[in-house]
Amino acid sequence: MIQTLPLALPGALVDTHRIDLTMLYSKGWGVGTDDVVVAPNGDVYALYHAHRYTWNVAEDEQDPALANFGYRIITRYSADGEVLASALCCPTYGDETASAVADGNDMTLCVLPDGTLSVTARPDCTTLIAPDLSRVLATYDSNAYRPFEESTPGDGFAGSIGVTPSGRLLCSVSERGVWKYGSPLTNIVGVADGALTPGNRPVIEAIASLDPEPARHSDNDLKTHVHHRGRPVGRDHRPRPALTELVAGEDRLSGWRDSRLGRPVPLADDLFVVPAFAKTFRGGSRGQPFLFALVNDQGEMTGRLRGLDAYRDSPFTGFCFTLASDPRRGRVFHLNRYGLYAWNKTGVLRAGLDTAAKAFKPLAHFTLTACSPEGDLLLVHRKQHLVLRVPAPDDLSDLAAVMEEALRTYARQRTALKKKWGPVNWHWVDASAPVHRL
Question: Strands 44-52 and 125-129: what pairing?
């Protein structure tokens, strides 16, 4: 069933801070989406953020109507689209330690096999939240080292998590010294076979790396919960050859130095897609090499997703680096400014929808976040703040027809939602669901 959901701002948030929804984002406020996922029971979780900054407002301003603010917002929907609850966390002004959710960069969601919602962020910050969003169950915070700042080692887990059909956890982990940077960067991909719970942090078995030799490592950099061949990852011990060593000749400009790992996704219980992207440049990076590597659970690169042109189909325009997978049917999807692409389990490109075509031009305004457990595509309109759920066909040759129908249905459902919700400048406000502060 094609479905459209609004990303709702809690009415209490809008009222407390007296947010002017008519104000342009260029005036210092904004709303943006981080991730959308679907739980096995059909519930939908959306993670997004809202902020306001006014240059002449003091940091200790006590009036919430005037004070600067920033929050992460998690909203839970029922299977039929009803807003069930919202949660506010990770304030960027005031008492930033008031939230039990570990904050960081590139925050994403994952529903664990037991139904717990995990919120992850770089570097290696993982928070477990009750399915009803009422409370935080556990926080694994890396307390990451930052140059010239006091820090104590934490007990972080992973910067991103994905779940395979049998319940294995596909994780990405950061290391310090990657490409000689002092701050931690994602460098390791691994698999955990144990359950992640408030009382148990399973060992991650590393299967792939990006930078084979991070700089200036000591025993303090050993990852006690990330192992490779029976020993903790760190110093000179990690999976080799690294992905950048396997494709060393493809980046003639920078030799993969300053490249980055994207979020890996499972394609089966024992096969994963690990994305890597070459260095980005201030003046534009279209045409830079990228890699969607197929890696098995033994750490072998068995192939790659093929069929994209480094310039014509570049993910660097708009920094569209997300992959979404349907491991039960063995397929993976990618959406960027130039098209929507679908591959099978062997890495063969089975469908490509060009956003230059009139029928698919609206896709350029969407971001692909994930697939549901049934394989439905979850897309978010960046300006209209709406989630579009599209059932993917069993035969990928029918993807074009399905997507055309989905975009037509989206237009009709959007009109109905506008009549029901009365949004202001595409900002949707809900005052009926409970709001939790985590």
Answer: unpaired
Q: Which run of H or of E encompasses 399?
A: helix 399-421
Other beta carbons less than 10 A from residue 58's beta carbon: 9
> In whole angstroms, what is the distance from residue 100 CA to residue 106 CA?
18
CA distance 270 to 264: 13
Q: Hey, is 354 helix, strand or coil?
A: strand
Q: Render 29-54 in DSSP notation, one character per residue.
A: EEEEEEEEEE-TTS-EEEEEEEEE--
Four-residue CA torsion sign, 26, 287, 176, 118 = positive
pTM over 0.70: yes
> Cis omega (within 30 of 0) on the bond before 91?
no
CA angle 312, 313, 316 (to 5 degrees): 105
* Mean pLDDT in consecutive groups of 10 residues from the start of the chain, 438 residues: 95 93 92 96 96 87 87 96 95 78 93 96 95 96 62 81 96 94 93 94 96 91 92 93 92 87 96 95 90 96 95 94 96 97 96 96 97 96 97 95 97 96 96 93
- Beta strands 136-140 and 160-163 are unpaired
Residue-level pLDDT at 220: 86
Alpha-carbon distance of 190 to 205, in angstroms, equals: 5
Question: How far is CA 265 from each of CA 262, 273, 275, 309, 336, rounded to the nearest angstrom?
Answer: 9, 5, 9, 21, 17
User: 121: which strand partners?
Assistant: 125
Tell me, what DSSP letter sits at residue 216?
A: S
